[in-house]
Amino acid sequence: MNHRCLVPFSRLLSALFLSAAGLASAGTSQPLALHPDNPHYFLFRDKPTVLITSGEHYGAVMNLDFDYSKYLATLAKDGLNLTRTFSGAYVEPSGAFNIASNTLAPQPGRFICPWARSATPDYGNGGNKFDLTKWDEAYFKRLKDFVAQARKREVVVELNLFCPMYDESQWRLSPQNAVNNINRIGTVSRTNVYTLDRNGGLLAVQEAMVRKIVTELDAFENVYYEICNEPYFGGVTMEWQHHIADVIVETERGLSNRHLISQNIANNKAKVENPHPAVSIFNFHYASPPETVAMNYGLNKVIGDNETGFRGTNNLPYRVEAWSFLLAGGGLFNHLDYSFVAGREDGTFVYPSKQPGGGNPVFRRQMKVLKEFVHRFDFVKMKPLPSALKGPVAGGTRAYVLAEPNKAYAVYLAPEGEKPMPREAVVTLELPEGKYRAEWVNPLTGTIDKRESVTSDQGRVVLKSAPFAEDMALRLIKK
Asked: Is the pTM of this model over 0.85?
């Protein structure tokens, strides 16, 4: 025995104590919550939080070829704090939506979901059919490890429970389709799967899956549940969505923790009518310009933009979408990043130009700039304040203002078009009289391109930006 390698017993005990304390702390933290002082934002690990990410196409758990450890390490390295993943109740065929190397479309035999495989062969994408009365424990082990590894990296997991079948190609592969399970449950059309009265016995299966997932993930503070992705397609009824929210609430009554519930409302914008009282996050897709934030701000809940795309593969339109949405008062932004695929979990996959969206390492660094910009403010005390703008912004831009009046102002200048051009913007703001420190922040790099001290005279200040070609941000703090 080499005694030089021995660790002193006291040091070993100390290390074990610290390790145990760390695990206990991680396991007993309060779950992600709405901030009590401003429920448009989150409270996570006792800190005010805005969730910002550029994440993979939702197959991290259900695709056995996807190395989620490497993926989560990449998100953490890039300074991002959110990922969105699907439960496995929905799966896509290869080539769906013209997505190359789609993580939601596992290779034959590489799909895993909450339900166990049976001994009966001939599932449509390889392997045996499913038994909707039994759980796949390997799946739940993978799911919990995914959430645990995200927790270690301070990444919040949005777990999307269900998704409609957009067309027959998804329904043909669904475990809920009677042709794919041995229980002969789900002999219905794809547009009746998520209803209370025409589901062919699937409602009880769905309820059981929700209860199982919520119970298994009870101890994790870094997770919240989205009821259904894009329920406005494929026949999903509002009554069914509210019922699933009730199932989550009912299940957690017998558990230790309460987790937030999200509802996906619409593409672009919509006014939320008769919201379910248990829903705390109202998510939209492709919410640019961010008109839906103002439309629903009175709900006093988080308004999120949790899917982007269909605006080309360049960074600018998605960066504008992110900055505009958050400075309009949103609390969550998730860019759909197609550079994450199985085998390229570091987000370096070069996708074809016809991909329905973007994402790359450079864009993720830009999202880190946004996250750091917002978190440098005491943003819980801030609110959208478009009235601070006086007149149009000169320089071919539109502006968004988030403010703690008489103290701090965050301003974002978004280009009117998507063609870069040299410009300097002139912004007139109505501000309480006094002196202010102005910093013009480059959204591409995070560098401060211009610093100046300005004085509000008779309640107004006129600021001229640093030169820029695409977009620009302003941090204005009263001295």
From this structure: yes
